[in-house]
Amino acid sequence: xxxxxxxxxxxxxxxxxxxxxxxxxxxxxxxxxxxxxxxxxxxxxxxxxxxxxxxxxxxxxxxxxxxxxxxxxxxxxxxxxxxxxxxxxxxxxxxxxxxxxxxxxxxxxxxxxxxxxxxx
Amino acid sequence: xxxxxxxxxxxxxxxxxxxxxxxxxxxxxxxxxxxxxxxxxxxxxxxxxxxxxxxxxxxxxxxxxxxxxxxxxxxxxxxxxxxxxxxxxxxxxxxxxxxxxxxxxx
Lengths: 120, 106
Known about the structure:
A: mainly beta, 7-stranded mixed beta sheet, 53% strand, B: 106 residues, mainly beta, globular
């Protein structure tokens, strides 16, 4: 059973860069899209972006200028970088796997979530 | 694609039938899933491709719809179902969520 375990700094100052990593345990990176999603306090979930097992990326246009998602196939993990953080980026950040197979499309599993707070 | 979910919250009793609706701003075929989130936890999938029940999810959960209007129904609400529910479309980029429906105990 595939599990995702994520980690990274939880407290940042304004204008710093967020770095989070998500390790894939018990499964292959192949064939899936590896995704980052966030949830600001009291607001709806927001899709940040994804990377395929061959390294192609898609980003949310609202964040595209500040986001980089990368993949390390040798270590079987993927990472998120979000630059120029502000208080508006305070959220719980989740990693998740997206299955693109026709008729079997879903986001599962998810990481445990990382609360990221931006404060001076 | 905008996903408009309603209601934003509801109060219901154990045993009640509950229906949650998501409307897409354009045709998304059946490219939608429903997720349940409990406080402090990551969302968990319930329904995929609009109406397919995830393995292990109780049969009191069902999904329906196609195109722009979708529903999640809980046929007989149980204590463990009190949570927040989200729809999520994967028809086009960026993927987008509904605003969530918080199901509370009456």
